[in-house]
Amino acid sequence: MKHPGFVALRNGYVLAILISILVIAPQGVAYDKLVEKKVFTMSSFTTVGGDVLKDVRFGYETYGRLNANRDNAIVILPYFGGTGHAAGKFAESDQAPGYWDSIIGSGKPIDTDRYFVIAGDGLINQAIKDGHTITTGPASIDPRNGKPYGMRFPILTVRDLVKAQKALVDSFVIKKLHAVMGLSLGGIQSFEWAAVFPDSTDRVIPVVGFAETDGYTIANLHAWSAVIKVDPKWNKGDYYGKDEPFEGLLAAYKIMVHQAQHYGSVSKTAGRNWAQEGKDPAKSWGNTFAAEAGLDGFARLLATVNDANSFLYQVKAIQLFVAGDGQTLDAGLANVKAKLLILPAESDLLVYALYSRDAAHRLTQLGKSVEYHEIPGDGGHNDAIFNIARVGDLIRKFLND
Predict the structure, then answer these.
(1) What is the pTM (predicted TM-score) of this model?
(2) Residue 89 CB neighbours (<10 A)
(3) Is 90 exceeded by the pLDDT of residue 325?
(4) Of 85, 178, 262, 381, which is the active-site residue?
(5) 106 in catalytic set
(6) Is 348 a known active-site residue?
(7) Which entry of 184, 200, 347, 356 is annotated as an active-site residue?
């Protein structure tokens, strides 16, 4: 069955976005086995803030096999709003494989003939309505009263997200990971992992991430959140079982999706084209440009499967982020022992390459082992998914060294 959001995907620009989503692997070859969403559970989890969550659970997927020495595992950390569905398909009929299918699989840069890959949904994951994502967050039932947590759910930090993922790894009795990597929020978590669990892995690959949230990004994230909070249906987070703040979440995703684009790809793909032939935007407010319709269609696709409160909680975690001790960045990065391959996107207007260069410079000044390369392309932040194969050989070499 087609996703409801697909009904908006009719004009050329939106179709190009859909094609990008559905054809992530350059050769169109998905991970060669069907994947299964499994569930990781913890009877309790103590947050950095001291709150105790009971009956915690989140989903995860694995690709490849754990070897006898249990030392060939690679962890993939999820991006903002992203899940643990990093590769393959749940069913042959699925329209798209996981988001990094172009680099995960037999013979690919993250070679599943050689490595065991673990990809978890993580806590407070937004995509609770996609039919596959399993996660404890504000939409979950509070076992203390049998009602959804809503905004009574404790504020979590990036360290909390990483601690939960580390608990998943520990459940496999893995003492040393081969690598940790992720994109966007996953890249942020990768920096945190390197600083907080320095002895757990020898390699870390942050993709379009940063090691500290600056004031400009804090303000960007505030703008995303604000449009949710002004939707009267948000009702201070008390909307479960009622009409949800869909319009507010839709507006938040419009802002986010636009910032994740780059003028190069949008101008080439949409230009000044009209959304529909014969419907001049100058003649009616109901007539739009292709660039507008594309933004609306993609944002609607996301808003339909995601949860507004979970969106806000992920925003808050990023706003609070400083890698390591939570006080000074250099003090946190001083703990890093792994070698890093830092991969920003050269055209990124959401998480600027400057942030990765700053992290690389700080780590180098601290005497750490750092490689820095930019993902080429004019797709902006999205190049971390759609153009990740362009740095596939760099990833392969880094993992094999």
Answers:
(1) 0.92
(2) 18
(3) no
(4) 381
(5) no
(6) yes
(7) 184
